[in-house]
User: Fold this.
Amino acid sequence: MQLTGESSIWVRALRFAGAGLGGVCLASAFPDTSWAGLAWVGPALLLLAARGASSGGRWWLGWWAGWIQHGIALHWLWEIPVRGYPILGWLALVGYLALYPAAWLGVIGWWMRAEDRWRDRLRGALAAAAWWVVLEMVQARLLGGFPWNLLGASQYEMIPLIQIASVTGVYGLSFLVVWVSVAIYQSFWVIVRMPERRHGWLREIAVPGVVTLLLFGWGWYRVRCPAEGGRVLRVAVVQPSIPQTMIWDASAGSNRFEVLCGLTLEALQEPVDLVIWPEGALPGFLRYDPLVREAVAALARSNGVWMILGGDDAGVRLSGRRTDEPDYYNAAFLVSPEGRVADVYRKMRLVMFGEYIPWFEFLPFLRWFTPITGQYTPGQEASVFEMSLSESASNSRAEVFSSKVRAAPLICYEDVFPHLARRFLPGRPDCWVNLTNDGWFGESAAQWQHAANAVFRAVETGLPLVRCTNNGLTCWVDPWGRMRAVFRDSRGNIHGRGWARWSVPLPDPGSANYKTLYSRYGDWWGWFCGAYVIGLSLASWIRRKRSLTLAVS
Assistant:
């Protein structure tokens, strides 16, 4: 029962159908559908489709599966309200991301050849999981990185299981899912090839199965016995739900600013410590537009609140040929209760073709393939906003804990980069604040996918995450990855206009959850997987060379 050869059109059709089904499973594991269990099946289907195929055949099957997976999962790119451009961006991004499952299937198909002994099959399964993690590490970094929908992120609702991210990051969960999936594939082939071994298939899934159960039990205990801190931050988040076309329209700036201010005044009917506006909320330059600056300052002064706002910023160009022109930044501002700008964070990880045009100096024609007319400059410093709260605002334990609260701002999809988030940790933040505008993509799956990826930053670092968005998903996530509150309008729609007030517990600096293993050592698991596959490859090369030497002699 093994498909061999590449000549039969029916064999090839069957292979591509199986690989396509694997791609559908991998896509369906993420929002909107969120059928997380299918993530544990997808890699097995890819291996099943590629069994007996040539090296080139495996590569094309993986690329086809990647096209199906990412083409479905990233269909929201078509929602960008610009004629002609979405399809180009979708084709380019999907084609690029499809290279990763192609590379995985091409490499792992070779590892799956030696399957006579159980230990060889176990080693092959571990190698398959490690290679998947290595490719995800590359995807998160190459060409600026795009760690969107890493396989482990599909399990964001499996709260006990995702606790492993506090040790290994999201990559550890990706490893586990692939390991189990490959074991399922191997169990199937044991049943087919060795039917006389009635329970032989159980041996294939025993080790990964036991590891999964142990991790689930540990995670369940961790969530069941949380150690929340005594400090509480009272926040008011404003979701204006402004269409992207209106944000691009400079003449509509005053109208959308009035909407923001009106919603904020409604939210401030009860006292809060911090008001948060989403990315790009300000219609002008806060530090240079006196009308905007005074309106924001008056709002902060009259209510005695801190504010974190998203908007554009500019500064003196320090390098380049046109030093007479300023650099422009996508920024987050901290405004004090006295109405002054206390701190500024400039977004470090920009969106390619959305906020900058790569290689523009060498390939200027690329500007015709993007809707943007200018470019942002990436920031260089991971700023942590520090706010001093009054004793009444801190809580009943203000005499024990400092009244200072530190918030690490992440703008847009910066919250999907595990290694980027760690750059803020030397500033000892108490929480994450994500300002984003997913209004580019209408009311699509992008909002839920974005939030699902962001959940892991809270688990990895043991810090709560507050997300304030333009049109969804505005929420706050506790240090164990649970969405404790999600904003919905009066009709129950996450994309609607409105505001919410939440009391967010902050971890005590001395609590066991405050400093996770991932916070200390970062992507150690990913680097370990890289060392593991290199070691296996070298050992395999040495064995082959020795065998050839013996054969010749």
